[in-house]
Amino acid sequence: EHGVPGIYRSQASMAPGVKVRMGTKALPHAGLGVKSYAWCTSPLRRYTDLVNQWQIIAVTQHGRSAALVAPFKPKDADLFSVISCFDAAYSAYNGFQSSIERYWTLKYLQQNNITELSATSIKDNLVRVDDLPLVLPALGAQGLARGARVRVRLGAIDEITLDVSGTVIERLDEPTQAAPGNPAGGPGDDADDGDDGDDVAAGPISIAVDVSEPAADAQAQTHALPAAAG
Predict the structure, then answer these.
(1) How far is Cα 125 from Cα 133, in angstroms, rounded to an integer?
(2) Pairwise CA distance, residues 218 & 64, whole Å
(3) Were both Cys, which of 32, 50, 55, 214 would link to 43 (CB 3.0–4.6 Å)?
(4) 2 confidence band (pLDDT: 50, 70, 90)
């Protein structure tokens, strides 16, 4: 409305492979079901939130002329740089957090001599352990419908690569036919893998760069400002 850019998070759909994107244009976030979404509430721990607060303050203080005085202007290369740097750091933090969580989960299994677990099929060949934050490939899980309950026997644990696999040894529920148009492993399987809007240990965030926004409003404000000041 005032031509002041911000850093938004968007997700085009809940289809598999559609990741959360960060960009300067307000777009819908399918995972949250909102028309637009931006991080603003945690400026002490996320620089993107601080940037958005600076932009919001500029709008509240200067109104329609905010685009001229905001820290980041429309199509500002520095703003795209902030998004890129944040994406790299955020992905690194999430990767580290996921690795540490997986390491201690595997250590827990070793220390307690756990060799069999109940799990739920999440997609072709992958199962999620019911009571632990652990996803692993399981032989025999191919073709299972999403949500199928199984018993899995664990294989050897590699503490260096943090790899572990398993074998399905028992089906814990009655087999059901996959819903029409959504076979096991098909579209919709990753519906709950979208971003929840806050700290998620998901994959890298894509950056949406919009270079097509007209600068007419900002130019008009540039000409109008001296007249308003007079």
Answers:
(1) 17
(2) 9
(3) 50
(4) confident
Q: What radius of gyration, in Å, describes the C-alpha atoms of the chain? A: 23
Q: Do 74 and 32 share a domain, yes or no?
A: yes
Asked if residue 169 and residue 127 are part of one domain, the reply reads yes
162: left (phi over 0), alpha (psi -120 to 50) or beta: left
Question: What pLDDT sits at residue 16?
Answer: 75
Q: Tell me how far apart the alpha carbons of residues 11 and 167 are, in angstroms, rounded to a whole number.
A: 35
The 10s digit of each residue's pLDDT in 58-97 is: 999 998 888 888 999 988 899 999 999 998 998 899 999 9
Q: Which amino acid is at 71?
A: P
Distance (Å, whole) CA 55 – CA 48: 11
The b/e string for 50-59 (b: 16+ C-beta within 10 A; e otherwise) is bbbbebbebb
Q: 185-196: buried (b, 16+ CB within 10 Å) or exposed (e) per residue?
A: beeebbeebbbe
pLDDT tens, position by position, 169-181? 999 988 765 444 4
CB burial of residue 173 (10 Å; 0-12, 13-18, 19+): exposed
Q: How far apart are CA 165 and CA 168, in angstroms?
A: 10
Q: Which domain holds residue 171?
A: 101-191
Residue 162: CATH number of its domain: 2.40.50
CA–CA separation, 160 vs 157, rounded Å? 9
